[in-house]
Amino acid sequence: MAAVLSSRLLERQAARAVPKLSERQQRTQEARLAEAVPSLGAAYAHARARWMGDPVLRLAGVPIITECYRSAERQDELYRQGRSKPGPIVTYKRGGESKHNRLPCPALDVAFLLADGSMSWSGLLLSKFARLMKAADARVRWGGDWPRFTDRPHFEV
C-alpha cells in the first residue's frame, strides 16, 4: 500500500515538474529569437521572463518559439496543407506574402513545452501569453485577436 501511494505521489510530482529545455533546444530558441526584429524579440523575452517568474504559469508549460523566419519554400509547403496536402489549413499566405518570410522577422509563432516533453498550442495558455506580450510592447499584434482567421500561436509587430 505504501509503495502504491509513494508511486502515485512521484507521478503527481513528475506531472507538476517544470519543463526543461535541453541544450540543443535552448540553442534553437536563441537562434530563432535572434531572427526576430529587435522590438518583437524584446517583447517575447520580457513576456517569457514574466511567465517563468510566475510559479503557476511556469508549471503549465514553458513558452517556446516554434517558428520565426521561414523561407518562401516552407511558406508554400504550409500553404498547400489543407489544400493539395492533408491536414487543416494553417495559412492563407503564399511564399513571399507572410511576415515570416522577412529577415529580420517581424513575426513569430509560440507553443508550450510541457513537463512530459510534448507540445501544446492551448488557446488558454496562448491567450495568457498574449496578454504578457502586448503588455511588454503595445505594438505587438496577436493572431488570436484576428476576426477572420484566428492564428493563436502567431505574434507580430
Automatic annotation (TrEMBL):
Domain Peptidase M15C, residue spans: 127-157
Pfam families, alphabetized = Peptidase_M15_4
- Write down the InterPro entries for this protein, in alphabetical order: Peptidase_M15C, Zn_M74/Hedgehog-like
Under which name does UniProt file this protein? Answer: Peptidase M15C domain-containing protein
Lineage per the UniProt record: Bacteria, Pseudomonadati, Bacteroidota, Cytophagia, Cytophagales
